[in-house]
Amino acid sequence: MIFYFSGTGNSLWAAEKISIAQGQKLFSIADEIKKNNFEYTLDDSELVGFVFPIYAWNAPKMVVDFINKLKLKNYKANYTFAISTCEANVGYTMRNLKDTLNSKGLELDSGFSIAMPSNYIILTHVKSKTSIEAILDTAEERIEEINTSIDKRENKFEITLGHFPYIKSKLINPLFMKYGIKPKKFFASNSCISCGLCEKVCPTNNIKVDGKPKWGTNCTQCLACINRCPKKAIEYGKSTRDKGRYYNPRCKK
């Protein structure tokens, strides 16, 4: 079984390709949390996988919270892997994830990172279509390599740490989680048609559309609402004005 979290399709695309190649069931972490479902029964040969994006050099809080509540029946050292999608590097994400799994009596046998186009338009601009396609071509090759490693049940960690991984994951990430996520900055412009898509795609049920969308305080800053709005009507303060939007063009869901 493979558990994934995705805001704008990068991790979902990777998870879909891995699940098909490995013949594994795919579970949305956001959906499982909404259903209050944390208990699963494993077959002897079943894999356990986690696929998620990097948020400020760590796994999203939703992913960590899910794993902390996760109960795997019949777990017998089943081969367990994690894949993180990122723009550049992951810091100590895998080390932190391994510690979290160990606290649950689970092992992390392998970990991989995959470079993907960034969706974080609060700080960056969306790349050109040509650049996005080139990055995704390389990512597709990377996914094939990862599938080969999983087939062989290899114990390996192929990740891009980046410079100063301790500072990024242990110091900057907690500060980002405490001060960097400010839902009050979200708003919908007059282009909003009240279609309700932002409410539907929000993984934390943080958006309610009553005329125009309104944001609560339970935001994970996945930016699905901004990037998937069909009218580009959602903004984050002044940071996203006149910027492009991103959703993985190869993700079919």
From TrEMBL:
Keywords: 4Fe-4S, Coiled coil, Iron, Iron-sulfur, Metal-binding. It comes from Clostridium cibarium. Its cofactor is [4Fe-4S] cluster. This is Ferredoxin. The keyword Transcription does not apply. Ferredoxins are iron-sulfur proteins that transfer electrons in a wide variety of metabolic reactions. SUPFAM superfamilies: 4Fe-4S ferredoxins, Flavoproteins. Residues 183-212, 217-239 form the 4Fe-4S ferredoxin-type domain. Residues 129-156 form a coiled coil. It comes from the Bacteria.
